[in-house]
Request: fold
Amino acid sequence: MPLYDYRCPACGHDFETLVRGTATPACPRCGDPGPQRMLSRVAAPGTSATIIAGARRAAASQGHFSHYSRAERAKLPK
Reply:
């Protein structure tokens, strides 16, 4: 099931939801049965060095070993 973004013309509420087939969901705020489907933004893959370094810092602060590089993980005692 694809995930779509919608905007309700009645109340202006933006929401996203999983949709099966050609079904159109009702607005979760006001219940209007005819929200408009919007174009969704595509998330860029996390391949930049800044994003990877930030993820490693977050993992290290939480105590995960995933912040180590492959070479560093190979040196860890098993």
In short: Residues 43-78 form one domain.
